[in-house]
Design goal:
By secondary structure, the protein is mostly helical. The protein has 4 helices and no strands. It is globular, with a radius of gyration of 18 Å.
Length: 153
């Protein structure tokens, strides 16, 4: 599947905007996870460490994406495309897990998470997945355009 633009922008501008948005959210995630990580007696310390590592990897992928845009080198796009493809796959897995939990859910008074919480999480993940797939298609289409590919799968 190929797109010809990003919202009302051409593919180059859209891809650059997507890269900058990812940088902003990665920096916010990095700072948030850093403060959780340095908090004494934090129960979420190990997950914050994983979040810090993920943010650094995401920033590196965005660097290569921007470098590829600046130098018109589509080979640099592959890091961002692969990492975001993996991320989209993980979001899909979490959505499936939430759906299974909701289908087999029998509420208890002591439950930490209610069905409503899971439904809201599923809706937010679905929106995130749809936007993420669109962004992925824009970047993939621009990579294809730069490489001169006729067909994009």
């Amino acid at each position: 599947m190929k797109v010809t633009g990003c919202c009302c922008f051409d593919l180059r501008t859209g891809t650059k905007t997507i890269a900058y948005l990812h940088i902003v959210f990665s920096v916010i995630n990095l700072i948030t996870n850093f403060f959780v990580f340095i908090t004494p007696n934090s129960e979420s310390r190990s997950s914050a460490g994983v979040g810090i590592l993920g943010s650094i990897i995401s920033l590196a992928a965005c660097y290569f994406l921007l470098k590829g845009i600046k130098e018109n080198q589509p080979d640099y796009f592959k890091y961002w495309i692969i990492l975001n493809g993996i991320g989209l796959g993980l979001i899909l897995i979490v959505m499936i897990i939430i759906a299974v939990v909701l289908l087999t859910y029998s509420p208890q008074e002591t439950d930490e998470y209610t069905a409503e919480t899971l439904i809201v999480a599923a809706i937010l993940l679905l929106i995130s997945e749809m936007v993420g797939v669109y962004f992925w298609l824009v970047v993939r289409s621009y990579k294809s355009q730069l490489a001169g590919d006729v067909n994009v799968v």
